[in-house]
Amino acid sequence: MFASALLILVPLFVGFAVHLENRRLLTWINHMLEALVYLILGLLGISLGQLEGLADQLNRMTGQVLVLVFGLLVANVAGLWLWHRWQPMTLASAEESRSHVGYRRLFLGAAKPLLAVIAGMALGHWLLPALGWIEDVASGALMLLLLLIGLQLRNAGLSLRRLLMNRQGLGIAVTLALTSLLAGLAMAPFYDLPLMHVLALTSGFGWYSLSGIVVGDALGPAWGGVAFLNDVLREIIALVLIPLIIARQPAMAIGYGGATAMDFTLPIIRRSGGLDTVPVAIASGFILSFLSPVLMGLFLAG
């Protein structure tokens, strides 16, 4: 049972162990990562499009996604509110309402992965014959993706020790992870899945480009779609919440975006909350980016 977890974790740790100094190679890795993400999301879409009874499957997925999104939203917000009460975070340079946030560009960026899956679904449902090799190709691409993610995290110019010593960032990350798992325990009766697999669904922490792939590879394209949509919606909700609440609840604003706090939602965190939020957001996002594949791999092996 643990062999599947090792398949997920080994490439990640191998990549994280390798230090690179060639900037051109690192740039190539970043471009390769983006291409792989869209390739695998497209393959996930093709698999979804070729499911028997597609309309019924999509109806079922809608209910499953809504339960997951709402349960995680309530648990995460409550936990992050309690963390802020215990360890208040004050901002010296909040820029809410004074800075221009490129919402159109951000929402278009969030829409791209959805379009990749939808395009794959259209191809799989109307144009392509049944392709038995899609899962093998997706699995191989997943291993390469995790290797490159490990390389990217290791060579991002961030000190792991300094990130772990950022008290606010570490606290926010741990709070989000624990409340997500508690939400999984509470929501498990609503899903026709083993408890460990439900916990895997709640361990994406907003990293849709990984959760949909990993869960889909282990549980099939329908559950991969549920994981993917849950984490895409987390990112979209975070884009709306951050500028509205960061001045009063910075930990909640930074934390709810999960792993995206170190990349996709970082610009809006910086513009809405000021420079004080940047180290916290990077630390929280980095820790959750590392925890997510580890937890998903372990839970899916159970």
UniProtKB/TrEMBL annotation:
The keyword Transmembrane helix applies. The chain crosses the membrane at residues 33-51, 63-83, 130-149, 170-191, 206-229, 236-258, 278-301. The keyword Membrane applies. InterPro entries: LysO. Keywords: Membrane, Transmembrane, Transmembrane helix. Pfam families: Lys_export. This is Lysine exporter LysO family protein. It comes from Marinobacter halodurans. The lineage of its organism: Bacteria, Pseudomonadati, Pseudomonadota, Gammaproteobacteria, Pseudomonadales.
